[in-house]
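Two proteins follow. First one:
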Amino acid sequence: MEIVEGIGIGVAVVLAALLILFIRRALFTRSGGIIRLSVRVSTILDGRGWSPGFGRFVGDELRWYRMFSFALRPKRVLSRKGLVVERRRLPEGQERLSMPADWVILRCTSNHAPVEIAMARSTVTGFLSWLEAAPPGAASPRLASQDWPAA
């Protein structure tokens, strides 16, 4: 009888965890301004270290949440004021196995620290528009180079 109770408690815990993940995701996605976004959290091995998640635009910030996390706070926050896109490229090598084929990788500098983010090609235009949007009279040197290769 103890084994059955233990299995029942284990199943209840797993179901509760899945429910919490579902509710967390539903809360974030219902408010709009959400994009699928992967962030490279480790550069130890070439082509690896990508973590899937979603980004949420809130004012002058892009808040990134890990896909499989219980945290209600973003794992990383990119401020529009300190974010500069250095270049973009297509996934190479191992990266092609870890993300969809139509994704583009953007190498950015966020407050002088490098960060790589990946998103769908169709999302890049909206992201760059958000990045370039600035209050009237503010300078907008957000894009380091306009002669990017066609992605």
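Second one, unrelated to the first:
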Amino acid sequence: MNVPRIFGIAGWKNSGKTGLMVRLVSEMTQRGHVVSTVKHAHHDFDIDKVGADSYRHREAGAHEVTIVSSTRFAIMHELRGAPEPSFEEILSRLAPCDLVLIEGYKREPIPKIEARRLESANREPLAPTDPHIVAIAADHPVTDGHLPAFDLDDTAAIADFIERTTGLRG
């Protein structure tokens, strides 16, 4: 594994980003790639339950809390007023892999596919104002541009496109 390839999925709320991410992770791992993901949340989130030991460690003031078991580990880093880490800082903390799929981080200058659904919270296309959007995946016909367009559910074709775009496959 060399420097990981990075590819993003952007879109408005309810545009199908998460469903596409999950299908792509499954497809890419079935193809033999080691895939990591980064999800950007625009709100406060917690992966810890109130009252759990690790929650109590964080509440007591721990800077980082690591939970380890025989099946996984998680490191929670409390910002405690510090600025959100940059995209590059987050990438630097990931273990080596073949591909990092990014959900969110709309403004990062990485190649990305725009997810569009008719039920989206916002139907305004992102592609016209983002030169890093290299394709569109939609649940409806796309007629507004020159970018490759895929059916939102055509996971194999989108995975093929990502492999070609990132150089994972020629």
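SUMMARY FIELD: Strands lie at 5-10, 35-39, 64-68, 73-77, 99-103, 112-116, 133-138, 149-151. The chain has a mean pLDDT of 91.
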